[in-house]
């Protein structure tokens, strides 16, 4: 009886497989580059996936690579470490961002919530036009804008209590209090030192805000 051994030609399912000199064909062990015996797809199958954050058709069903940022192996669901698009790419499920907007005319609370949750997305003040110009770069934000409520002409307030350029809810709360945003004070942030007062104006010399002197304790 003759046993025919078929030489290996791919690293599919063989990443980090220990070298066996009795098995013909190319290698997929961690030292194959040094010997020049790696399979042609070694980098694509065993190296590149460890640097990716998403699944690709090539990665679906891969052998688990411990050094990967996320996984596309068959056991990733049980281990709860799949890449975010695993079900979409490897199981054909429709992506949430491509679904139609849900009917929210009758508010309902998701399981585990006593009240309907509210997602508030704020962007850096220097990116006030981000959703109009670059929204395609982050499809999730585009979906939230399309299916939720957005304020396209809302401009950031500088500075805020949390970050100098942050687009914050303070803008709304200040308007609600009946004060002009340009006169808003920021008591939680020490903007001036040495007894100096900072005054910021726009190009047409319109005051934007006056920073307070540091409080004395």
From TrEMBL:
Keyword vocabulary terms for this entry: Disulfide bond, Glycoprotein, Hydrolase, Metal-binding, Repeat, Secreted
Coiled coil, from the record: none
SMART domains per the UniProt record, alphabetical: SO
Top-level division of the source organism's lineage: Eukaryota
SUPFAM superfamilies, A to Z: Alkaline phosphatase-like, Somatomedin B domain
Chief location category: secreted
Record GO terms (molecular function): metal ion binding; nucleoside triphosphate diphosphatase activity; polysaccharide binding; scavenger receptor activity
A Gene Ontology biological process term: nucleoside triphosphate catabolic process
One term under GO cellular component: extracellular region
Signal peptide boundaries: none
InterPro entries: Alkaline_phosphatase_core_sf, Phosphodiest/P_Trfase, SMB_chordata, Somatomedin_B-like_dom_sf, Somatomedin_B_dom
Pfam families (alphabetical): Phosphodiest, Somatomedin_B
Transmembrane regions: none
UniProt subcellular location: Secreted
Chain ranges of the SMB domain: 7-50, 51-95
Protein name: Venom phosphodiesterase 1
Species the sequence originates in: Liparis tanakae
